[in-house]
């Protein structure tokens, strides 16, 4: 079974900020559904979304996708 490192990291960062999926989606002007799909490993974000998430959480894209701890 493939690990969903991105989804796990996204959820961890979201929870550290005290945000629900809807609140994060609203902050980033995305749908709640896409946040859920990403966290559950059912979809992968495009580069534009990765950049937006990295800037929002002040982390690197490498961290988001599990290449850096």
Any overview of this molecule?
The protein is mostly helical. The protein contains 5 helices and no strands. The longest helix is centred in the N-terminal third of the chain and has 12 residues, at 5-16. The radius of gyration is 11 Å and the shape is globular. The protein starts with a helix and ends with a helix.
CATH class: Mainly Alpha
Shape: globular
Domain unit count: 1
Low-confidence stretches: none
In the CATH hierarchy, what is the superfamily? lambda repressor-like DNA-binding domains
Helix content class: 55-70%
> What is the number of helices?
5
Q: Rg, please?
A: 11 Å
Total number of strands: 0
CATH topology: 434 Repressor (Amino-terminal Domain)
Largest sheet: none
Oligomer: single chain
Helix-strand blueprint:
Layout: H1 5-16, H2 21-28, H3 32-39, H4 47-57, H5 61-65
Describe the structure using short key phrases.
69 residues, mainly alpha, 434 Repressor (Amino-terminal Domain), globular
């Amino acid at each position: 079974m493939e690990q969903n490192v991105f989804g796990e990291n996204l959820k961890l960062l979201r929870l550290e900020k005290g945000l629900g999926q809807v609140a994060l989606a609203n902050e980033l002007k995305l749908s709640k559904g896409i946040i859920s799909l990403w966290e559950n490993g059912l979809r992968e974000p495009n580069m534009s979304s990765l950049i937006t998430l990295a800037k929002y959480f002040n982390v690197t894209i490498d961290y988001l996708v599990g290449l850096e701890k």
